[in-house]
Amino acid sequence: MSKKQLFSLEYPVRCSPTILYEFLATSSGLQEWFADKVDDHDGVFSFSWNGSEDTAEVVAHEEEHFIRFHWSHAPVEEFFEFAIEKSEVTNQTILVIKDFAEKRDIKDQSMLWDHQVKDLFHRLGN
What we know:
By secondary structure, this protein is of the alpha+beta class. It has one domain (4-121): START domain (Alpha-D-Glucose-1,6-Bisphosphate, Chain A, domain 4, 2-Layer Sandwich). It contains three helices and seven strands. The protein has helices spanning 17-25, 27-33, 106-124, and strands at 4-13, 37-41, 44-49, 52-62, 66-71, 80-86, 93-102. A seven-stranded antiparallel beta sheet has the order 1-7-6-5-4-3-2. β3 and β4 (52-62) form a beta hairpin. The longest helix has 19 residues, at 106-124. The model has no long low-confidence stretch (mean pLDDT 94). It comes from Flavisolibacter tropicus. It holds the Pfam family START_2.
């Protein structure tokens, strides 16, 4: 059993769910902010960063709502997910990222996501 635990991060976004989903669920969109190079073959995405490569399979998705990936090297119960929610109070679009990390690494992993999302927001003009 994995020692990693699930954690979630929320980011308010100023764009439509349709546009945001394209950046989260397509190889061209993910390549804009998530990795140096992204390829997609039948639901299996290859991500490259600074010469290293990893693959993740899309295990679940709903257009304009969420996409869940499973890293090829990770235990079956682990995933990372991008979800798009609407605040009922403000009607604002919220990007929710779910990921797994060991308890001692959650802060560092959250900072890494913050950095990645900052790049995404730059691309979106936020």
